[in-house]
Amino acid sequence: MHVLSDMGGGAPESVDFDTYELVLEQASRVRFRTALNEDMPTESDPQPTNEERNSLDDWIHCGLTP
Ligand code: HEM
To answer: How does residue 57 score in pLDDT terms, banded at 50, 70 and 90?
Structure first.
């Protein structure tokens, strides 16, 4: 399963968050796009709350412990 393509398509194949290892590889970009720039997920998709964006930011900042 490809999480982002299942969410409505449009995300490139290289952006794949199906496993912890794949998330680790792109962690700094995930943090940037979700917490700092706030342009992911794309506007047309369900949006996380600010609290959820902050939690994700904290988790990445603290080293992404599984
Ligand atoms: C929590 C959900 C999501 C996260 C964390 C996320 C994160 C990312 C990341 C890290 C990239 C790689 C580019 C970069 O380094 O900045 C990316 C690219 C992309 N994503 Fe997302 N994404 C999410 C949801 C979605 C959804 C739902 C779609 C569309 C249905 C989407 C469409 C795209 C597209 C088209 C690109 C390539 C163009 C671009 O970088 O703007 N993403 N995303």
So the answer is: very high
